[in-house]
Every structure is written in structure tokens, then in C-alpha cells.
Amino acid sequence: MNKKAISAIVATVLIILITVAAVTIIWSVILPMISGNLEKGQICLEASSSIYIKSGAYTCKNSTHVKVNVLRRADNVNLKEIILQVVHGGSTSSYTINETMPSKNGAKVYAIPITKIGSGIASTDITGLKIAPVLTTDSGDKLCDATKVTKISNC
Known about the structure:
It contains 2 helices and 10 strands. The protein is of the alpha+beta class. The strands form 2 sheets. Strands 1, 2, 3, 6 and 10 form a 5-stranded mixed β-sheet that branches. Strands 4, 5, 7, 8 and 9 form a 5-stranded antiparallel β-sheet that branches. The protein starts with a helix and ends with a strand.
């Protein structure tokens, strides 16, 4: 009888050790994935809440150009460039703005020729604009999600 009791104790201890080892292995694999994605998401959340299109007189379109007024609040992101997404006729065309970025607590108006946005696009087809910030991080460049569509009117 003593042998059966000893083998039951050994089996219980082995099950506990296997469980602890499995939890340790899973934790060491999952934790870096979660923490890395949280950091990237947090950076993009800060960027998307601080960089936006201001609708109004300086965000408009005419027959040759699209003007967009990009505002930037005080933030801690390193803005590399802005992807401007132009909504037209049920589709979207992208244009990369990599000239001077708006300074913190500043604004910048960009005038983009319609011919650089895409061929065959008429100003009457353009209905809205979105921007997607591209950030420089320690692990490389990070493209964040685009903002909601800002309607655009004629200049």
C-alpha cells in the first residue's frame, strides 16, 4: 500500500511541475507579443488623436488642386510623413506628403495637384479626405490607421 501512495504523490507532483512549466513557456511567448503590440497601438492612438484635417476655408478643392489643412496638437510622436487618402467616385487614391510636417501645436496647408493624386480624377468626383500618419519608432517606420473622412468643399 505504501508504494501506491508514493506513486500517487509522485504523479501529483509531476502534474503540478508540468503545469507550471507549460504556463511558463506560454507566458514567455505570449507576453512579448502582447507588450509589443500594445506599445505600437498606443503610439498610433496618440498620433491619430493629435494629427487631423481641419475642415473649412483652407481644406478645399478647385479644378487643379486639392488643399488640405493639417493640424497637429502637442504630442510625443515622431511624424515622418502623412499619407493623404482622397475619396472620389467610390474609391480612394493615396498621395504621400513627405515635405515639411506640421510642427507641434501648429498647422500646415498642403496644395496638391489633382494630376499627382491619380489620372482621370476630376475635382467634382472628390468628396472627402483622410490622413494616415507614418511615424518613426525605435523598431522602424509605423503606418497608422487613417482618420475618419473629412468632407471637402469647393474653394
